[in-house]
Each structure stands twice: as C-alpha cells, then as structure tokens.
Design brief:
The protein has 768 residues and is mainly alpha-helical. Helices cover 58% and strands 4% of the residues. The strands form four sheets. Strands 1-2-5 form a three-stranded antiparallel β-sheet, covered by helices on one side. Helix 29 (661-680) runs parallel beside helix 32 (732-751).
C-alpha cells in the first residue's frame, strides 16, 4: 500500500504543534470529510484519523467515532478495540508508520504492536518506544523555544504559559508510554527511560513555577514498580520538601503518600505522621465544606494508620465547625399541583358516614408507588457527598450512580410519597373540619383492634390533636414510638419472632424498628405498604429515615405533609386487615368503604363507587369519556381482536371505579396484538408470542421499533402472570397514551405486508 501525498501532508501537519496528535487528528478529519467515500485517499484519511483518536483506558486502546463506531442493542455507542479494526486499516497504519513527527510514528507503531501486526510485531514495539522518547525530547525542546521567544518569564495563566505546560505534559505522557512498553516486555531501554523520567521530574521541580502535574506523571508509574522504587525515592523526598507552603499542602500529601510506598516498613509511622500533619495543614487552609472534606480524609488516614491521638485531634477540630460555616444552600424545585388536586382528595372524606369511616379510609388507601423506573437519557449522575450537619460529619460518599436506574427509582419513591403526603394532609384537615373529633371520640376507635391497648393509644390521640394544632414536632415525637410498638405487637400476634436471645457476651433484646421492617412481608401486608414503611422509616440508601432523624434530633422540624404521612402509616399499622368500623349513619347513606384485603369471602360486595385515587386526576366519571375518546378500534382487523381492544378501552374507562383496571387494559391490548400476529404470520399454530415476534421481525412484518415494543409488553405480561410483579397502576391519561400506542401498532401491523424471501436466478428458472 502506497502513502497518498495529501494524506501524508495531513499527517505531518503537527510538526510545529505543542499537541501534535490533536492537530493531526483535526487535519485528517477535515481531509476525510472533503473526499468521496470509496476513494483511496478517503479510506486512508479515515484509518489514520481513527489512529489519532484512540484513547488508552485501563490498559486498553478504544475508539468511538465515525466511521468506525457501532451501537449495541440499546443504541449506545460501543468502543472499537484495536483488534477489531479491519486488515486494510492496519495496512494503512503500517504504510504511514515512518512519518515526520516522532509522536505520530509512536502512536502508529504502538497500535500495530497491540494488533500484533506483521511477521515481527516486536519491531513495532521497539519503534514505538524509540519514537516516544524522541517525541518527548522534541516537545520539551518546543517548550523551551516558546519560553525563549517570550524574552522574559511568562505570567501564569497566559496563553504562552499554557502552551508550554501542554507541551511538557505531552512529553511526560510520551515517556510514561515508553516506560510501560519497555517494562512490560523487559526491554533493555527501561533503565535509560527511568533515568529520563527522573531527570524530567527534577527539571519540573526547578521550573519557575514548578510543575506538579509533570512531576506526578513521572513518579506514579515508578512508585508501583518493584524494580524502580529506589530510583524514585530521592525525587520524592525533594518534592515533599518543595511543596510545604500555603496552597501546596495537597501536593505535599500526594507525594508523601507515594514516598510511603517506597520507604522501608520501619519508616512507615514517621511518614504517616508527616501525612497527618500535611492533611491537617490542608484543612486549616480551607473553609466550610472544603475544610470538612479535608478533615474527613485526615480522619480516615489516622484511623487506617493506627494514629489514635491524631484521630482524636481530627475529631475535636471537626466538631468545632459550625453549621453556619458549611455555607449550604437549600435548592427548591417548585412542582405545580394539578387543578383541583387537593380538593379532590377531600371528596372521600365528605362521602364518609362517620369519623371512623373517614379515618379507616385514610388508613387503608395506599399511595401509588412505581416498581420500575429508567434513568432519563442524558441525566448526569454526579459524585455526591451526604453530610449530617449535626456533627458535622460525612455520612456517605457516592462516586457516581452505579445502580443504573435504581437510584432514580428511589428518588421517585420519595417524590411519590411527598405528593401523597399532601393528599393525606388535606384529608386529615378535612376530618378535623367536618367531624371536630375529641379525645373521647378518638380513643375508643384507636383502641378497638386487639393489638392497640388504650394506654398506648392515648398518646397517639394526642399526636393527632397536636397535628391539628400545628405542632408537628409533638405529633411526630408521640407517633413514631407508638407506631413501632404497634407494629411489634402485630408481629407478636402473628407469632413472628420479635426477640433475640442472649448469646455469649451479647445480651438478649427486643428487636428494634429496622428488624421489624424486615418482617413486613411475613406479616402479609399487601403491596405497596411494605415499600411505603421502609421508604418513610428506613435508614438505608434512598429512604427518608424520618424515625431516626426526628427522634435523634438530627433535622429541623419536618414539613407538615411528611408528618401527615407518618400519621397515615400509624393508622395503617393499626387497621390494615381489620374490619371496617361499624356504620353510624343510615344503612343506605354515605359511601361504603372498600373491602380490606383479607375480608371474608362471603361478604356482600358493595355497589361500585369511585376509586378515591381516580379523583387525583379526574373530577367525575364523565371526564373518563374524554380520556378514552381517541382510542378508536382499527377497522378491518379480525373480529376477535376488535372485541379485545373494545374491552381494553372499557377497562381503562372503568378504572375510575377500580384503579388497577388500567394495567389490565394494557395486558388486553397485548392479547389483541397476538391475535393479529397469528392472523398475519403463516403457520403460526401454537407458537409462543416471543417466537411470533421473532418471525414477524425476520419476515419484515415488524420493524425494529415495533418488535422492541412488543418484547417489553411481553415481559411485563409474563412477570405479572407468573407472580413476579404485583399489578402496577398508572394515571388514566398515562394509560390512554400507552393504549394509543398499542392501537396504532396493531393498525400498522395489520396493514403491513411481509417482505417476500429473496430468490436466486436458479429459483426463478426452475420454479423451486
């Protein structure tokens, strides 16, 4: 393969640059975009452009760019490794491997070594090592020429200074790459390269100003080497002495930690104490959050190094930081409520026959909680520090959200509960305004279940009175311990263990709230109540931790709607599974309550009444007609499918009376889709749905998007059918949107024609 003059010119364009590979890459990309696909120049531009864009991460060279990028099943870009490049690309690299600038040569030979190209790949490695060293020298010379051209010491931060620093850092990186190749293959040049790295580190300390970035790049690979630790020690000792002034303590800590890696074990304690002093000096030079984080690092080091007195010093210093010194701001995001949202919440209270019925309704009406959520595309997950300002102390550090959508789902749970808390707050206030309950009214009702002794329930009654009086602190302080006690008594009544026996030095004890929450599933509480209790009261990641925060005085007074949420949970723990209270009004008046989940099977079912959750989104049944108005059954589809779609639409409309119908409606739409697929696909027989989807996609009946949608629906149907997931619920208009997609998809598939299989000339001639 011959080199093309235009391509070669672009490759050599970085000779006078302080960042040659970037400049070469830009020139190659421009050449690629200005040539026609299929031309030899175009292919050479593309191959060499890819070579300049490769990045070394965790020991692997990867590239993601046109025209070499690809995507996975989710549409995400997939890096291309060197070994995946086409042979023609490797041949192009080899043709241009002897170019003018040594760093370009080094990059091409390095990649060819990674691909083990040619009959003697080791020659590529040796050429890469030699070229990296030559490139480093060239860049350092370029930096000195820049400085000489200025005629006077440059001012820090000026463009000329930045160019000099870039050239020096590029040179340091080139030496590190040469060292890595030589050390990994035991090349004799390694000793010379180590000498060059030490010399560059010494020079970095002598520059005005010194360059800790270059110095750190030289020391980092030598510190972890078993052969070169002794050689780097004098350089590190000098660096530690150099970086000891204000604003430099973080560099001092960095080089002290590297020095500890190269000294003998008998010197570790002395270096540990130096690290501690440097960290404390770093903290003293900081303020607010920066100071707190520096002290946390100092405490971690003192603890891990066994410096007991030093750890106590950190504690004393840290505890003197006032909350006002942390300079924390509260970020609020206004969320407008739908028109009539809170007014609709009071409808069920107004329809109740009595105070007892109203409170029982609140006790047994759970919030709507999603059991799945995908992290929105493009949403950044930033490193996060959780702080308890009462210390102040860092409680947890999260480098990034490595749980995929799980962390986002936890935040959705908290948001859903806050919205539900507003509803409960409005309903409790409506109970107060309508019934004006007194302690004499509430105590007999709260104490009616067998697990609710009157002596304990008087405190809960006082909590409700405090809530209605606006005293949130008192309401929570009285409710939370009684909630825990009631839950413990319910577990005892169900013969579920709530005690732990003594063992050795461990004393016996009555289990506390955390252990009780872990047993909610054994108690048989229906979903989503176990999730609600854990999210509001638990103290693991993604939970409100209201119980600990309030009872240990770790937060200011919580909002009133969160107090309402705790009061509802207390009612739920009291009355879930209990018979509704006796009706106090006439038998034919008011609105009857929904049946509890374990009510007697022979109890007469009430006449359908509006599901209270529906009032969060529509105000009357007539509004549901507008919700489903756009759901028109496609014409021409098989009658059986049309009937199922009609049923699906009616299920969504009647979710006004049974909110869970929204999920059943979607599942019915999937049944109609299966009917249509069987009608369109020959020999469908009794094939399962996943096989029909696959066959439909292969035949061209289904597009990629349609097949993906059907697979998602199929998996949801299977999870519900096999008991792996409880029925989810969704607002009416969400359900209408999803059904609209289903109706449209069925119409598209019914109108589509499968792509006929390709035939050969022989097939056409013989009729086979």
């Amino acid at each position: 393969m011959d080199a093309q003059p235009a391509v070669l010119s672009a490759v050599n364009s970085g000779v006078d640059s302080c960042e040659p590979l970037h400049k070469v890459g830009r020139a190659l990309r421009a050449g690629w975009s200005h040539t026609n696909p299929g031309e030899e120049e175009h292919e050479h531009f593309a191959a060499l452009w890819a070579a300049m864009e490769f990045r070394l991460q965790d020991g692997t060279w990867d590239v993601v760019l046109r025209p070499f990028r690809s995507t996975d099943d989710n549409g995400d870009l997939v890096p291309r490794a060197v070994k995946d490049m086409a042979p023609a690309v490797l041949e192009a690299w080899a043709a241009y491997a002897e170019t003018t600038h040594p760093l370009v040569r080094a990059r091409l030979h390095h990649l060819l070594w990674e691909a083990r190209h040619g009959t003697r790949p080791i020659e590529h490695l040796r050429s890469a090592v030699h070229s990296y060293r030559a490139g480093a020298r060239a860049l350092l010379t370029k930096a000195e020429e820049h400085l000489e051209a200025l005629g006077h010491p440059p001012e820090p931060g000026r463009e000329a200074t930045i160019e000099v620093e870039v050239a020096r850092l590029r040179a340091a990186k080139a030496l590190v790459l040469a060292y890595g190749l030589a050390a990994a293959t035991r090349q004799p040049e390694r000793t010379d390269i180590v000498g060059e790295m030490i010399a560059l580190g010494q020079a970095a300390l002598a520059w005005k100003p010194p360059s800790p970035g270059v110095l750190g790049r030289m020391t980092a690979p030598l510190v972890v080497s078993t052969h070169d630790k002794a050689a780097v020690r004098p350089l590190l000792e000098r660096a530690v002495d150099e970086y000891c002034g204000e604003g430099q303590f973080h560099y001092r800590v960095e080089f002290l930690e590297e020095l500890r890696c190269v000294v003998g074990a008998d010197e570790h304690r002395d270096v540990d104490e130096q690290i501690h002093r440097a960290r404390m000096e770093l903290a003293d030079n900081g303020t607010g959050l920066r100071k707190l984080l520096a002290l946390e690092d100092a405490a971690r080091h003192a603890r891990d190094s066994g410096l007991t007195d030093a750890l106590d010093e950190v504690r004393r210093t840290q505890q003197k930081i006032g909350r006002d010194e942390l300079s924390m701001d509260t970020i609020r995001t206004p969320v407008p409520l739908p028109v009539g949202y809170l007014e609709a919440a009071s409808v069920a209270i107004d329809a109740a026959d009595s105070m007892e019925h109203a409170l029982h309704f609140i006790a047994t009406t759970p919030p709507t909680m999603s059991d799945s959520a995908a992290l929105p595309a493009g949403l950044l997950s930033l490193p996060t520090v959780y702080i308890n300002p009462n210390g102040p102390v860092v409680t947890r550090t999260v480098e990034s959200d490595n749980t995929g959508g799980e962390g986002f789902l936890f935040r959705q749970h908290v948001f859903a509960l806050d919205m539900h808390g507003l509803v409960v707050e409005a309903q409790l206030d409506r109970v107060r305004d309508r019934f004006r309950p007194t302690a004499e009214d509430l105590v007999p009702f709260f104490a009616s279940p067998g697990h609710a002794p009157e002596s304990r329930m008087r405190g809960l009654v006082r909590a409700f009175e405090a809530f209605w009086e606006g005293d949130v602190d008192t309401a929570l302080a009285l409710t939370l311990p009684r909630l825990e006690g009631t839950l413990r008594r319910r577990l005892q009544a169900a013969d579920i263990g709530v005690i732990t026996h003594a063992k050795g030095e461990t004393i016996g004890q009555v289990q506390q709230l955390g252990s009780l929450l872990d047993k909610l599933d054994e108690l048989g509480y229906p979903e989503p109540w176990p999730l609600v209790l854990r999210t509001v009261l638990g103290n693991t990641e993604g939970q409100m931790n209201l119980r600990n925060n309030v009872l240990h005085d770790l937060v200011d007074t919580p909002s009133r709607h969160r107090a309402a949420l705790v009061l509802q949970i207390a009612l739920a723990v009291l009355f879930l599974g209990e018979e509704p209270p006796a009706r106090t009004g006439p038998a034919d008046s008011g609105t009857r309550m929904p049946l509890p989940w374990n009510a007697a099977a022979d109890q007469h079912l009430p006449f359908p009444v509006p599901d209270p959750r529906a009032h969060h989104f529509v105000t009357q049944y007539a509004d549901m007609h507008d919700v489903v108005a756009g759901l028109t059954v496609p014409s021409g589809i098989p009658q059986s499918a049309a009937t199922v779609l009609h049923t699906s639409r009616e299920l969504l409309r009647h979710s006004y009376f049974c909110y869970e119908f929204s999920t059943v409606a979607l599942l019915h739409a999937l049944i109609a889709m299966e009917i249509v697929l069987r009608a369109k696909i020959p020999d469908s027989g009794t094939k399962p749905l996943h096989a029909l989807i696959k066959q439909g996609k292969e035949s061209g009946l289904l597009t990629e998007r349609q097949a993906e949608f059907l697979h998602v629906g199929r998996k949801l149907r299977n999870r519900i059918a096999h008991g792996q997931r409880a029925h989810s619920v969704m607002p009416p208009r969400w359900g209408a949107g999803m059904l609209t997609t289903s109706f449209t998809l069925i119409s598209e598939v019914w109108a589509a024609q499968p792509t006929p299989p390709a035939t050969t000339d022989t097939d056409k001639g013989t009729g086979i």
